[in-house]
Design goal:
- With about 550 residues, this protein is α/β, with parallel strands linked by helices.
- The chain has two domains: about 65-270, TIM Barrel (Alpha-Beta Barrel), CATH 3.20.20.140; about 360-545, no CATH class.
- It has 16 helices and 29 strands.
- An eight-stranded mixed sheet has the order 3-2-1-4-13-14-15-16.
- It is globular and about 80 Å long.
Length: about 550
């Protein structure tokens, strides 16, 4: 890429082409700031091809920081490299494990960085009553977060059936958010028609679960803003990107769940550049990538105007949007791919009381001619329910590698219990096993494998580590420990990204065709997403919202 000298005549000034989104203009300017606040902008003339371009910093409009396996302070170090200056974050992953203590761990970590986090009060902890979680957040606890200002919105209301049915508990949480004047985030995959209208009328202002343009258009018509999600598992940009030009004032960009290796490679900057490649107008893209979330959530983030915080990214050009430098409140946070923020060593907190499992715990006697099998889909949180004849050996149902019908188990991490066992297609393992203590949303231990022995080795290794992601290949056990709630590493982001990538390579070497096998595995226990999932208490039909039998 071409080299642009970073012209700064004074410590708190910069000469660049200013991309002013509000007026939809680009012009050469000198920008001045003091104590992190822009004091003046001096227009120097038209666009200067010899200067780089200064943009409002990017904002991730919905992300679970925990999915990066990094603390908020470490997430900030990596995201700032890509020109991201803020994130709207739902801490419900750690809340499901540690309750308010987990939420406050995230908030305390965020206070150690100039990067801006807007945390939500988790609305669904636990996500359902059909699984074992480590905590419960009721209205009284949520109100504590609103009162102190630690939370500034009600995070994704996943219990959309409860909203539609008038469930008193969920309606009380919606009323609480409205009383404090807080935005309410949605989560309603597939909801349409009059039900989408009723959901929006309950005060819910966003949705990030749309998978089709038709679904998104219906939700927009009901009054919701649409977040186009492109994460490590769920990828909806291809289906939804036309909304950027059709409704630039009603659309935001988000990652939702971003694993560490992909965060290290790129963030909202790559999504914005992709939108430009697809022919969307620059100012529409920047409206969605930077301005809309600031306005919707009332974020204290600058938009490159006098009196604003100096939150910005300098890019080499307006096609690739390659970040050269990022400022957070006037402080240089990253330059040419290198983070300048300090590494902050966290003190781990956790809750882990699982017992080791044995091969006998995974034995399922054959009692039926056909069984229900979960079908995992690459790049989707949704699954399909299949009915297949099982492979039987010695009177027991076993994994069938030839048909890619592998064994899946969920082990209660909060107290000693017998594992739940089911079968799944789509992971493609020819040997070994994958296991993780990241299993949305209750974060029990989940494992998939080609045989019971490998699954036991993987699960028991994670129990020994008190959390992590692991792969078993032959007799080899490899693990990334996650000592913070079994979700987050206490190491720096580059180490975590590299170690995660190494485990990902091993998972693919033993047969998985999935783009992100660990991320996909983590969603196989997410009961609020159809069709068929597995909780620590058994096989669950998300369409009927009740347990179902393995045998048909």
């Amino acid at each position: 890429m071409p080299y642009y000298p970073l012209i700064e005549s004074l410590r708190d000034s910069l000469r660049a082409n200013l991309v002013e989104v509000s007026s939809r203009r680009i012009f050469a300017a000198e920008i001045y700031w003091r104590d992190g606040v822009i004091t003046a902008i001096s227009e120097l003339g038209g666009e200067d091809s010899g200067l780089p371009y200064l943009l409002p910093g990017f904002v991730d409009a919905h992300v679970h920081i925990e999915s990066s396996m990094l603390t908020p302070a470490e997430f900030a170090r990596i995201a700032a490299r890509h020109g991201t200056v803020a994130a709207v974050s739902d801490p419900h992953e750690i809340a499901n494990v540690l309750g308010l203590d987990g939420v406050r761990f995230m908030i305390d970590s965020a206070r150690q960085t100039p990067f801006k986090f807007c945390f939500g009060a988790p609305s669904c902890v636990p996500a359902t009553s059909f699984e074992t979680a480590g905590a419960r957040l009721d209205c009284e606890q949520l109100e504590m977060l609103f009162q102190t200002g630690e939370a500034s919105y009600l995070s994704e209301v996943m219990n959309y059936p409860g909203v539609l049915a008038g469930d008193p508990d969920i309606l009380a949480k919606l009323d609480l958010a409205r009383r404090y004047g807080c935005k309410i985030d949605g989560h309603a995959p597939g909801l349409s028609g009059s039900e989408a209208v009723r959901y929006a009328e309950a005060g819910i202002s966003t949705d990030h679960e749309c998978t089709t343009l038709k679904e998104a258009e219906e939700k927009l018509a009901s009054g919701m803003h649409i977040l186009i999600r492109e994460g490590s598992a769920a990828r909806n940009f291809e289906a939804l990107h036309p909304l950027i030009s059709l409704h630039p004032d009603k659309v935001m960009l988000c990652s939702d769940d971003k694993h560490p290796d992909e965060l290290a490679a790129g963030h909202i900057d790559r999504l914005a550049a992709r939108a430009l490649q697809y022919g969307h107008a620059l100012f529409d893209v920047l409206q969605c990538a930077s301005i809309n979330p600031v306005r919707h959530y009332g974020l204290p983030i600058g938009q490159l105007r006098p009196g604003d915080r100096m939150d910005a990214v300098l890019v080499s050009d307006l096609e690739t949007l390659t970040p050269l430098k990022t400022w957070l409140a006037g402080r240089v946070a990253a330059e040419r791919g290198k983070s300048l923020l300090p590494v902050v060593k966290p003190k781990p907190i956790n809750r882990f009381n699982a017992r080791r499992i044995q091969i006998s715990d995974l034995i399922i006697k054959s009692a039926s001619q056909t069984i229900r099998v979960i079908q995992a889909l690459d790049g989707e949180l949704l699954t399909r329910a299949r009915v297949l004849a099982p492979k039987v050996s010695g009177g027991n149902i076993v994994a069938d590698i030839e048909r890619d019908v592998l064994m899946l188990t969920v082990v209660n991490r909060y107290r000693p219990e017998k594992p739940a066992v089911a079968f799944i297609q789509g992971f493609g393992l020819k040997q070994g096993a994958l296991a993780s203590s990241v299993a949305h949303d209750s974060h029990n231990i989940i494992a998939v494998g080609a045989d019971a022995e490998s699954i036991c080795r993987a699960v028991n290794g994670i129990i020994e580590q008190q959390g992590g992601i692991a792969v078993v290949e032959n007799d080899r056990f490899e693990c990334l420990p996650l000592p913070i709630a079994g979700l987050i590493s206490d190491r720096d982001g580059d180490y975590v990204a590299n170690r995660y990538a190494e485990l990902d390579r091993i998972a693919k070497r033993i047969g998985s065709p999935l783009r992100t096998p660990f991320m996909t595995l983590s969603f196989m226990a997410l009961l609020v997403i159809p069709d068929l999932k597995l909780s620590d208490r058994g096989l669950f039909d998300s369409r009927t919202f009740q347990f179902t039998d393995l045998g048909v």
